[in-house]
Amino acid sequence: MALLNPSGAAPAAPEGGGPGPRVLLGAREDRLDSVLALARVAAHLGGLRRTGRDGLEPPPAAALVCDDAAATGRLLELGVPVVHLESGPAGPADGGAPPQRALLRVHRPGWLPPPGPGARGARPTGILAPRRTGRSRTRSGTLLMLSLWGVPDAEAESFASGALPELAAAALDRTGSCTVVADTGLARVRSALAAHPGVRVLRASETDPDALHAEAAVFLASPVLGALALAQARRAPLVLLPALGTVQRALAAQVGEVLPLPSAEDPADPGLWAPPAAGPWHLLDPALDDLRGAQRVARTLRQLALAPL
């Protein structure tokens, strides 16, 4: 069925969990933030049975939908209570505002400058961190986490044919291996990297980016909240890829007001491939360094499933 697939959206969790109420989970496969957010919340849903797009017969007790306003609206019309989670800043690729009847949550770390006026009733979650924050002692290679969601075609093509192969080649040379995790535009990315067969290219919705990060020595990522949350939770170094599109540029500017993160502008810079042991996360106000966002969203969904409105 296409309930959670009107424009690239899809479920991110197969049937699973405990004997409790059944909840439907859905996210946009074409958006890195959305995939990461859903996976991190799902990790805290012990005691609930999880299902994806085919889980409407019988109707689930509740649903968690990341970013797909159309899917949220359709579920509400079917009488399913929904927690609608906005995984990152809104952009032109969004499908509009979610219905007010949903419980609205917004992934927003407290240390970022306040955003503009949001939807009425939308609550910020704090950082959506991975459940496991440890890193391998023998980590190696480079993880390059790329989001092309909402990026104009010309800009995406320019990056894929120019800076991306140069960064991948340098990563292979400096760290021995390179894995690229992308959300959309996979054909374009694979074509651009065809001359470097040692580079793995994976779709974000079909792998576990958080686990790959635990094994990597170097982390290059688009300026998106999911990647920032990952590095913050693990106190790991992070090098930002060039910001692509208006959403990434706006977020990168906001982050730059708070944290001095390096940028991957020069692949020949040896500092990119031998980062310090940790990033600048110690600069954050401890009162705003809150990693419990995924637990909060999971708790809300559990309460909705057990005692629907």
SSE arrangement:
Elements: E1 9-10, E2 16-17, E3 22-28, H1 32-42, E4 49-51, E5 62-66, H2 69-77, E6 82-86, E7 103-106, E8 123-124, E9 142-146, H3 153-161, H4 163-175, E10 178-182, H5 186-192, E11 199-203, H6 209-215, E12 218-221, H7 225-234, E13 239-240, H8 245-256, H9 293-306
Q: Roughly what fraction of the amino acids lie in strands? A: 15-25%
Largest sheet: 8 strands, mixed
Q: Which consecutive residue ranges, at least 5 long each, have pLDDT under 50?
A: 1-14
Total strands: 13
Termini gap: 26 Å
Overall 3D form:
globular
Mean pLDDT: 88
Order of helices and strands: EEEHEEHEEEEHHEHEHEHEHH
What would you call the structural class? Answer: alpha/beta
Task: Please give the radius of gyration in angstroms.
Answer: 19 Å
> What's the helix count?
9
Helix percent reads 25-40%
